[in-house]
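Backbone geometry:
***
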Amino acid sequence: MSNPTGVDTQLRGDYPDTVALPTALAAVITGESRFVNASLSHLDVLLGIAAPTGGDTAWRNRLLSMAVIYDWLHTQLGTTRATSTRNAIVAHMNENHGFVAAPDFVSGHSRWGNATSLAGCIALDGEDGRVAAECTAVVDNWQQGYVPTLDHVGAGGGHHMGWMYGSAYSSVEPMLMWWSATGELWNPEFLRDSAYFSLYAVDEAFNVPASGDAFGVYFTSSLRSQVAMSAAFGGNAYAEHLAQRLPPAWGPHAVIRSIVKNNLPPKAPDDLPLSRHFSGSGFVVARNTWSGVPAVVTFKSSPFYSYNHHHRDENAVALSYKGALLSDGGFYDGYGSTHHQNFYTRSIAHNTLLVDLPGETFRGWANDGGQRIPASWAAEPKTVADLTGPAKLDGIERHATREGVTWARGNASKAYATTKVSAFLRDVLFVPTPDDHALPVMLVVDHVALPVEREARIAWQLPLAPTVNGTTSAQVASTGGGHARMHFLAPTQRALRSFSGVERYAVDGVNYPPTTESTGTPPYWGRLEVAAPAAFATTFSTAVVVSDAPLDTDTAPRVTRVSGSSWEGAEIGTTLVLVATGTLNQLPIARTRSSLSRIYVAGLAPNQALAVDFSGTLVTFTADNDGLIAGPVSGGQVASVPEAAPGPIAPGAVAPVQVTDSAPAEPADNANSNEGCGCSATHKGADSVSLVMGLAAVAAMRRRSKRA
């Protein structure tokens, strides 16, 4: 800060900490009077503001700012200013008392409230008996609530709210504060693994997916802090590699990295698998490469329900290459807006299943045909016991990765009302390097069972207008020049509907447009819906081929559906990809072995043998421990199959199904047929506590040593 006396020392909106913390740090490090005077001037402004002013976001960040300045610059305050600051800290902690007395360990603002109260407790430790009981409660909330809850939802390193708000609701500053004050490190496994959530998802521009409430896709200060702590406290050399590659941060956001940085040698992620299952939050993130421009797939099926910044998006899949190709719909125009409650957070704005049930209620919001919402706010989960009890879902049931290939199965059956959906299982099989195509292919298979005959629909959210070919395929593009062709393979009887323009935000006959269409997240053209005729059970199958250019008949690999009573798949060029949907011991393929190069079969039993009949040549492949076959067709063990007269199918075998080509055709014309959080959609909402709160404890030890 070259001219601290010129810094705005007023409120700075609800975020005075963005000025207070870096200015105070400069004062501590340099000792220069210009920084000290700027900090004290800012403190004087804050002392003149009554504790309740501005609401909880403002008072939490004033509390943080005053605690830091009091702690770090205590010897510079003088008796009168020090007394006034203590009184103001106590008053602001009193405003925070509701968060301390009734904490919500899963979501809501109580975590941030308890974090800023922890800063106040450390600043006043041993000095003011007025906060003794409150501080005991704050520490208990952390040790008995927030810490074990993050261990649960953050297992593997992720967070159910995604990257933007998830990183703020798992912010590292409380861990750093407590460690600085006591030497005890909270959530060490999460700190070690948290960087993987960013490492796997980040693209070439250091953008992350817009999952959950998201006002942008940029790499937030909270994410930066997690990467820094993962390297410094978790010894994660991959995190250090990412930290060194991130573009320079705005000063206040670089403070934690500068404090905790050590001499850990970085390690490139080249030896890591290309996908990772973040088991606590239910994310599977896969990519095709660790270098260059990656294609990134996110598949989300959380093992529990919650609201707040967590959407009704179980079993949703997203894909990006040079920008979003398949993404979430809508925009974060403000927490609790009509768009937020009726469209943006709902299943209709995500790539998942929709089933209309007339009369179904969603807490007074629109009936979108999507995943259920408990009738009252009182039913929202607040503890680990809630997440593993009444809020429990099945989530990701299986995950495997081999030779770069990723397979995951999500079970979102319990995310829907039982009167509407009996079962919804989704398999995602992602092949990063097929033999005859330079970029990935993906197979998405959905198994839907309903208690009564109804129409089921799979929604696909698109950033840009697609080119649609009847009901067979759609060509989609990203803003950065990436392309993909979606092949709708099953059911064979289907309707393909488009919702764009004013229709894209319509839910149950009412339009819920956003107040603003943010430029920080991908654009939103609208959605395509693949609809099946009314039935008790339906299988949807969609193949996606990623490309660098618009796919036409000269460049797109031929896509053909192959299926049987217990399997569903596709031939994509010379690559066979399929998922076992039941017991599968023998697989008949109406192709010669030499016409296919690679085979990928998911959903088998661990270490199971599978006999594949290539037009009379029987080849046996063996699945790995995760039930996945992945490799060259030439790698199987060959045995001759004698020619036999037509007759009944042998037990365990499956009759081949007549297949239909979905090769690229001439493109047709575009088908165009407040209660809770109380947050705003401004960019600092998720980052406020994640600036440099943890530094309060660093100076606490420094100040006490000076007093001694």
Notes: The longest strand covers residues 441-454.
